[in-house]
User: Fold these one by one.
Assistant:
Number 1:
Amino acid sequence: MTQTEIAKKLGTTSQAVSLWLNHEVPAHRVLPICKLLEWEITPHEIRSDIYPNPTDGLPQREL
């Protein structure tokens, strides 16, 4: 998925997405980005400062 596609789906600009990738993703954008990317990237990978454990922020599996 391109930065432009991510921006469009999140209702922001591609410039904002580029800024996040080069600096830091805002906390309120972490989970929406992970969900948008179908959890291929985890919250821990994006912001380990607020999701310190590898499974933090992941949806619970259904049994």
Number 2:
Amino acid sequence: MEELSKIRLILLDLSLRNRCLFQKVFSQDDMIDTISITKGHGFKGVTYRWGTKKLPRKSRKGLRKVACIGAWHPPRVAWSVPRAGQHGYHHRTEVNKKVYRVGKGYYKKDGVLVNSNGSTDYDLTQKSINPVGGFVHYGMVTEDFLMLKGSTPGTRRRMVILRKSILPQVGSKAQEKITLKFIDTSSKLGKGRFQTSEEKRSFMGILKKSRVEKVMA
């Protein structure tokens, strides 16, 4: 365990020094684990927290409660009885997340900015991994990134620890080879229909805000 802790500290130190470390550790089609603190919801009641059935309408002193929390003896409440309390903001580890893409951030080549990290072999146009208008409550991703299948615990901008799977990956899902054909980059605010800003501009024409920006410039 001490050697494992030392290796973990070395990896964390390297991750702080080298921003491209995960490209040397993870690769496409890998199965990895995510460790983080979940989104907090504060103190919640038993119905919200555990999904218990509400009591009849004429119940005394509340409906969103548990009618019986246990027998007279043993004279204590069992751990298995649903109770009100803290909901969220817990340390959680989710295992077996499939890596769909190990992406490279924006970079310059011959003085030209290259940001076509969201395109696939089946796309007709070059596009960025960022949706139109950026990710909601986050912004634009310009650094290296990982694309995983499924969700990760925590809120936006919260630190997530990624680690190699410690379980033997012998199942068919773990050994499946992924071929990405399409990445949706439409706007995540409202009902987005355009994959890039250029596509929207060519369809909608010059908008009023574009004219105002041109005049102000």
Number 3:
Amino acid sequence: QRLYVGHWNGSIFPNCSFLYGTNTFKIWHPRGPHQIEVWTYTLVP
């Protein structure tokens, strides 16, 4: 059995995340009691 370690994620702030394996940066915006809007950016080297 092989362990896949290609994706790492981490929260920088409570509403900001970075996904290392895909170079994706996400910002989470609360819009209401049961709603969240997510902005996703991809970092291109």
